[in-house]
Queue: 3 jobs
Job 1
Amino acid sequence: MSTIDGLNTHDWVSVQKEIYKKGYALVENVLNSNTCDQLIEGFQDSTLYRKTVEMERYRFGSGTYKYFKYPLPETISEIREFVYPKLVPIANQWMKDLKKDVIFPDSLAVLHQQCIDHGQLLATPLILKYGAGGYNTLHQDLYGEVYFPMQAVLFLNDYGPDYTGGEFVMTQQVPRAQSKAIVLHPPKGSMLIFTTNYRPIKGKKGFYRVSMRHGVSEVRSGERYTMGVIFHDATS
Ligand SMILES: O=C(O)CCC(=O)C(=O)O
Ligand SMILES: [Fe+2]
């Protein structure tokens, strides 16, 4: 049995509508508790990863993250293969709304071929660990010329019992205005799909472009683990 059977049971049309409208959507019960625990255990298994980043060193925040290497663990490939085609119609509608001459391919394999053609050969899914005092500064995960405008993060442990603080923060900036913050603390096993860089919002004179960033507020106690699923590959 697949670890992500739960994905099929969701109403993806509603999820798609929500992402189109708000720029994000939370999908609950994607990973069962065992799978989350196994992924956390795997944090110590150096054979799974291509690169470890101590976030303080780059002033990205405080915490550690590790990029998985190809071939990805099955759970991650399954999530990518399942979710990508659900997001392509939204991504293409966004590009159309914003009059951008970009069409994303229906298949992830074709997106990866485009990445290869641009020198982006390396896997981007990652696992992140933050202890007390840990945080992730607001950013966008673009790894080269080819990028898909949405990504996902899976919450591997629970806000409350496992850690406090460490909220997932998104900011949304519309032209000529200050940023709006959206703060979430999704439960263990859930998946948040969100905008990587920008999306359209309909105004009086057509669509305008809003820029989004994401990060994590300071963890006050405990340890917080997440897994990031990005669809495009990276140059380094
Ligand atoms: O730890 C988090 O919730 C944020 C992770 C993140 O920045 C990402 O997956 O791109
Ligand atoms: Fe990120």
Job 2
Amino acid sequence: MALDILVVDDEPDIRELVAGVLSDEGYSVRTAETAERALEEVRTRTPRLVVLDVWLQGSQMDGLSLLKYLKSIDPFLPVIVISGHGNIETAVAAIRRGAYDFIEKPFKTDRLLHLIERAIESAALKYENAALRNRAGEDEHWIGNSQAAANLRAAIEKVAPTNSRVMINGPAGVGKELAARLIHRNSLRAGGPFVVVNAASIAPDQMESALFGEEDPQGRTVRVGLFEKAHNGTLLLDEVADMPLGTQNKILRVLTEQRFQRVGGRSDVSVDVRVMSATTKDLKEEIEQGNFREDLFYRLSVVPLRVPSLAERRDDIGDLVSYFIERISDSSGLTPRDFSEEAMAVLQSMDWPGNIRQLRNVVERILILSPSDSSRPVSVDELPRDTGSGAMQNSKGGSAELVGLSLRDAREQFEREYLALQITRFNGNISRTAEFIGMERSALHRKLKALGVGSGLTRQDG
Ligand SMILES: Nc1ncnc2c1ncn2[C@@H]1O[C@H](COP(=O)(O)OP(=O)(O)OP(=O)(O)O)[C@@H](O)[C@H]1O
């Protein structure tokens, strides 16, 4: 996708020369002869780079003020200042106000092109770092060789280069956002931005301003919207079912016309954005209940993709665990450890309601809690018993650890847990416990002793 550059210069020769050279290099170029005209162009769409002559004849607003304004709407927007001979002081002032660099007239076009490349690279790094900071710890690799994972990977590769709108459905933490990211990375828009908006985390009355940006009564941009930030790239509408109905209308319009107006604005902003959506909800049901527009659903769901839950692809758990061990130990310096066969068997028998995100958290927690000198494999005892949402219960509702044990050991373990629970429940009273479980008091005593249960629990014996 051609990068969008705005050239602001009052001298037609320079404007045309620079625009011509940049077009030849494959950039998409807009020009403005005054600061006011530049503002209009920026209003139509925020460019990816601005070449600005700060000495603008015939403009009401001076070049430095224009620069200040550009920086206020996007602090990372690279601006290269052209300065006339003898204007070095102004150029230095421009750098202080956030310009990337300056170039003095007359200049060699090669040098300008070189500067532009460097400025775009440096801005891309800044955007990327900001995105990384927002998403610290996120991975980019698609792990999984199960049939379900392989099918999905094939679908991702197929749909990526098509530019079609994709609707990704699946339970929480299953990798929907990662799937969208991979589609973007494998698409023709890979060089453009990938922007995510989570509809569930934005207040409904802020949604339109977040998506479409905002203008003040003078028509100046006070907020650049996410649609505009995603120009030439991809916008993921995450938790799209939570989008307010009013906003759904407006999105529908953008999808049809690829243009919109900022909140409070009058002029049209035109963008080229591939829109993808993700949802944990059944949108057909949401449509029936009147929460989601059917026409929008069909627009968004040109290609539907379903990401299966982790419980539907247990074969991937081993690979995912190894992957997370490597990633987490690399990024945080924790000592990597293997998992014992029994511990792996336990992980593979869990329900994982929080899916891959939960598995990753469990691995991380185990590595953090590992003794610093431990090189032995992670044992069943080290697995967290409760992960906040009952994950360590397997699908049959049984105790997870039992899966890794022989029948004899499992029976013993079960008896131990069962009796400890009953004794706690009867407040340490052996007689009541014995009566409830249907055992002789003396037999229960013997059993508890043999299993090593109850010494601290038997507070009263009635
Ligand atoms: N196939 C995979 N291989 C490696 N890591 C994965 C895979 N799928 C998901 N992950 C990781 O699991 C975590 C959760 O994934 P992601 O945020 O994409 O899920 P989600 O379905 O979008 O969740 P939510 O519905 O809560 O937004 C992330 O750290 C992601 O990198």
Job 3
Amino acid sequence: MLEENKWTFRRADKQFSLEKWQKTIDLMTDLFSAPAGFIVHKTDDVYRIIVSSEQQENPYDAGAELSADDNIFCKKVLRDMAPLYVDHASQDSQWDDSPLVKDGFESYLGVPISWPSGDPFGTFCVMDFKQTHYQPSFLELIEQLRDMVEDDLALLDNFTQMREIAMLDSLTNIYNRRAIDLLCQHKLNISKRLGFDISCLFIDINSFKPLNDTYGHEVGDLALICLADTMKECLRETDIIGRLGGDEFIALLQVQPGDCIDSIADKLNTTFQVNLEKRGIPVTSLSIGSGVIAQPKENFAELLKRADEDMYEKKQASKAAR
Ligand SMILES: Nc1nc2c(ncn2[C@@H]2O[C@H](COP(=O)(O)OP(=O)(O)OP(=O)(O)O)[C@@H](O)[C@H]2O)c(=O)[nH]1
């Protein structure tokens, strides 16, 4: 049985299929004539079964969790990062308080699964309600199957890294234009469904060209990085922040009751100037335009255009005032 809901690996990634892992576990339990086999993922405080073999006698479904405080076989495998074979657990006093032994399991053969970095991912294991007498070749077999799972993890790791690289602006490490278009439209769709308000801030650095021309491109780059960091500092994790290109940035805010967009914009502007000064970069200000999603049918491109126009008006007004 697969754990479809909570598991962080989404089959939408297409590169990776939990069904393949399910087939591997089912095949392994068949070959071992065992009633239960698992792929277990270790998180901070629990051991979570992410794939569980499909025999009726198997008491644990995918999604079941065992506490990291419990005396369980997988914990020892990951502590030693070595295979473990327990052929007759009730004859070995170290497992007396194990909840698995209390559930009737007598035999365990498991191997550690690692991420490509070498960090522990979890375990690949087969369990039986009776004493077993596995040949050494059984361990070899389970290690071979584990290697297939590790190959998938390496693929997934590469894919995740590549996707992140493709979505991030290489200078500021916030979302790039392509990611912004995708993520913001998605957020608008969700906001319509869940009924929360969205506001878009269009942010442009004032007098950026003179800053570049006077102090050099590297100083300009530092100012861009400083703005990205300021946005991360001032906005919420649920907000989407990105760089559209040049000195133009955007934030898509999930508006909460009591939020005042003008105060958020003022805070961004003030904090940016303070941060520039702290970093020894010549101080300049921001022009920030905004748009609040008005009609349910409006799409992200239209919202962005309104925020851009508002920013342009504010910039012209501030230039006229100087
Ligand atoms: N340092 C640096 N400069 C960049 C980058 N991308 C674009 N620019 C420069 O950013 C400047 C943006 O020009 P403008 O928007 O006209 O600059 P501005 O002086 O802020 O004009 P106003 O918005 O009217 O205040 C141009 O000089 C670009 O060459 C970058 O990645 N790094």
